[in-house]
């Protein structure tokens, strides 16, 4: 989802880019990673194990991609002098506060997926202290892959009402917005290395996001009903608070991402999302 948006943004900006999917590059293969990085001045890693619940019973496999694979990329970038932009997640944080988490907040993953992604962050910060960038995102949606917004719109065609969790707080982030932000960071040659938070401004719950998506799609928001996380037990625990602070963008001279509502409205004007809302 993010990788396809990033390639589209790069193409629109007239940039030469190499896009490698899983079939073209296995990030757990150190030699293949070294060969792929050669000849590039900036690497953006959108590859990840993203099956949060599946990671609970396959943590070693998740860490091979999200941790060891990132270490291979960082080592290859260190050898060639390339900069590395590593996409990470709010799940490296414990989610036990009620204020926006700054980039300097102490980590403390509550599930295996978060631990695997934290291993990747640590590799970048350790191996590339001057040329490594960790961009944490959360609640990502877009038109090129499975995501919550697309699911809610599809379900509108087959269910009269939907019960949606109202006790998890976060920042719905459009993958196209994040792609543009990654390009801006890649272009900011004097941006300090380290951690940035690539999430939309504002905050809501999954319930609030579903209602707003329905309203923008011309559907009745009252079809969405609030419930609690306890109603949907999952193998992996989820942080209750995924609201991130964005202060570090000032140091890079880059504006933070816009408010989640305006981005959702822009996204839902795109044909791919309109088709979902109009599906029979």
Automatic annotation (TrEMBL):
Q: Which Gene3D superfamilies match?
A: NAD(P)-binding Rossmann-like Domain, UDP-galactose 4-epimerase, domain 1
Which UniProt keyword terms apply here?
NADP, Oxidoreductase
Q: Does the keyword Nucleotide-binding apply?
A: no
Q: Which ranges carry the RmlD-like substrate binding domain?
A: 1-269
| InterPro entries tied to this protein | dTDP_dehydrorham_reduct (IPR005913), NAD(P)-bd_dom_sf (IPR036291), RmlD-like-bd (IPR029903)
What Pfam families would the database entry show? Answer: RmlD_sub_bind
> Where in this chain does the entry annotate a coiled-coil region?
none
Family as reported in the entry's similarity comment:
Belongs to the dTDP-4-dehydrorhamnose reductase family.
Q: What does this protein do?
A: Catalyzes the reduction of dTDP-6-deoxy-L-lyxo-4-hexulose to yield dTDP-L-rhamnose.
Please state what the protein is called. Answer: dTDP-4-dehydrorhamnose reductase
- The organism is Kitasatospora paranensis
Q: What is the lineage of its organism?
A: Bacteria, Bacillati, Actinomycetota, Actinomycetes, Kitasatosporales
Q: Which gene encodes it?
A: rfbD
């Amino acid at each position: 989802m993010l990788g396809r948006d990033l390639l589209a943004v790069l193409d629109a900006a007239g940039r030469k880019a190499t896009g490698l999917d899983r079939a073209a590059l296995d990030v757990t293969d150190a030699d293949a990673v070294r060969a792929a990085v050669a000849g590039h001045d900036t690497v953006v890693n959108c590859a990840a194990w993203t099956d949060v619940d599946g990671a609970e019973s396959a943590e070693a496999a998740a860490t091979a991609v999200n941790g060891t694979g990132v270490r291979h990329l960082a080592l290859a970038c260190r050898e060639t002098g390339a900069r590395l932009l590593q996409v990470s997640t709010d799940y490296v944080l414990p989610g036990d506060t009620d204020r926006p988490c700054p980039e300097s907040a102490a980590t403390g993953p509550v599930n295996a997926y978060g631990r695997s992604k934290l291993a990747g962050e640590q590799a970048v910060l350790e191996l590339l202290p001057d040329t490594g960038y960790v961009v944490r995102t959360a609640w990502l949606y877009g038109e090129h892959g499975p995501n919550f917004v697309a699911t809610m719109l599809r379900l509108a065609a087959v269910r009269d009402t939907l019960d949606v969790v109202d006790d998890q707080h976060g920042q719905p982030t459009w993958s196209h917005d994040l792609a543009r932000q990654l390009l801006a960071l890649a272009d900011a040659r004097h941006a300090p290395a380290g951690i940035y938070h690539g999430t939309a401004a504002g905050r809501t719950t999954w319930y609030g996001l579903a209602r707003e998506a329905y309203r923008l799609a011309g559907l009745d928001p009252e079809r969405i009903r609030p419930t609690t996380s306890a109603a949907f037990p999952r193998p992996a625990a989820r942080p209750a608070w995924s609201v991130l602070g964005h202060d570090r963008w000032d140091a890079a001279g880059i504006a933070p991402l816009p408010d989640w509502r305006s981005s959702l409205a822009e996204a839902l004007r795109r044909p791919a999302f309109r088709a979902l809302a109009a599906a029979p």
